[in-house]
Amino acid sequence: MSxxxxxxxxxxxxxxxxxxxxxxxxxxxxxxxxxxxxxYQGMRGITGLVTETSLLDANEGIRFRGYSIPELxxxxxxxxxxxxxLPEGLFYLMLIGELPTEAxxxxxxxxxxxxxxxxxxxxxAIEALPVSTHPMTMFTVAVMALQTESVFAKxxxxxxxxxxxxxxxxxxxxxxxxxxxxxxxxxxxxxxxNGQHIQPDGMLDWAGNFAHxxxxxxxxxxxxxxxxxxxxxDHEGGNVSAHTTHLVGSALSDAYLxxxxxxxxxxxxxxxxxxxxxxxxxxxxxxxxxxGIPTKEQIAAYVKKTLSEGKVVPGYGHAVLRKxxxxxxxxxxxxxxxxxEDELVRIVWTVYETVPPILQDLGKVKNPxxxxxxxxxxxxxxxGLVEYEFYTVLFGVSRALGVLASLCWDRALSLSLExxxxxxSEWMKxxxxxxxxxxxx
Length: 441
Ligand SMILES: CC(=O)SCCNC(=O)CCNC(=O)[C@H](O)C(C)(C)COP(=O)(O)OP(=O)(O)OC[C@H]1O[C@@H](n2cnc3c(N)ncnc32)[C@H](O)[C@@H]1OP(=O)(O)O
Ligand SMILES: O=C([O-])CC(=O)C(=O)O
Description:
This protein is mainly alpha-helical. It has helices at about 5-25, 35-40, 70-75, 85-95, 100-115, 120-125, 135-145, 150-155, 165-190, 205-215, 220-230, 240-250, 255-265, 275-290, 295-310, 325-340, 345-360, 375-380, 390-410, 425-430, and strands at about 55, 60-65, 65-70.
């Protein structure tokens, strides 16, 4: 067994014992009360899940095993000559719960490199789709095609014991994370670069090699990919992609089935697809206004037009956050350092100065501040990755790190099949009238 796997097992055994104790001694203690509004309105604020990898504070933003994004940028190992954290290091942190050493990260990079082979039938499955297919559809189809490689599914079919679930899930997780950059780059080159594919460079780190296979060997782009893969990786457990992966995994679906399900949620415009919607919105605003950097007044008028058409302003608002997303700030810092004069970036910053008061004035938007998606597109366009329909695939490759580390924990902690109770509106009306009782376990 590899030393990372052994370390994970030791940590998991320790926490499993603590959770067992928690359940035995405090299992009946209430963590929440639930209102009718919460039941109807997306279960906001209900504590109903356990996710070890990260925790979100509405005002401070995400912390991965206690580390904020600025702290990750400081403490995680970097590529030689680089300044941004390596995503392998974040994966290690989320899985093991401790900061990795340089050697841990190098080891993980080479482990992923060794596991990155993608069988031909996966490329054939992508090729079978029309080139016009959305890249996220190609991505989930490819992940489903890769499911033939699941060692968890094979072991289950062969009668694996419950105590081994975590081990096979760990193997599937590493294999899938290793393979995703190749799959995603294949989709990009097929759809946008006439199928001229680029072979992996085994000397590069996971994100650097991904940038290379996409066709962007600029060091600046590689650094952007490292940062991008770190900041999009996880956002505690209740977001649509993480929750879906966890839910599907709770049926003992393997990592491929569970992750593909999560990616179908990420492909929705209120979740991960918002990053393509942001740049699309900015580009059409710029075009409508005749090019250049629009003034705040022009942006305000465009925002009001968007709202009057019954649409949302993409990249703004959040189900949990109540301040500017630190992932937006990290990207803003990157842009200030590397591309402060870029026109699209300057538009993003002017939009940031203009949108929040307008949303605030609507009186109903709980968070008028930008989320992660408000900035990412402008950075990618700067380096030449202009095909914005592809952006959510980048998000998906990154999100694999968090949701799959969590899936390993789900199996290691023997978390149960997820199956909450639902009721009908008829039942709700009777409940309000006192004619039926709240349903107790
Ligand atoms: C990686 C991520 O997933 S980050 C989020 C990416 N998504 C986006 O950027 C899309 C734009 N934002 C939104 O649609 C929302 O803010 C969401 C989906 C992110 C959060 O939704 P909620 O938690 O329901 O937000 P909230 O409670 O503030 O919504 C209240 C009202 O304000 C509206 N609202 C919220 N954000 C916005 C916005 N950016 N533009 C216009 N209206 C908005 C909602 O549509 C809702 O209107 P309604 O009562 O007429 O239905
Ligand atoms: O937390 C959420 O609901 C959405 C989000 O920002 C993410 O998943 O990255």
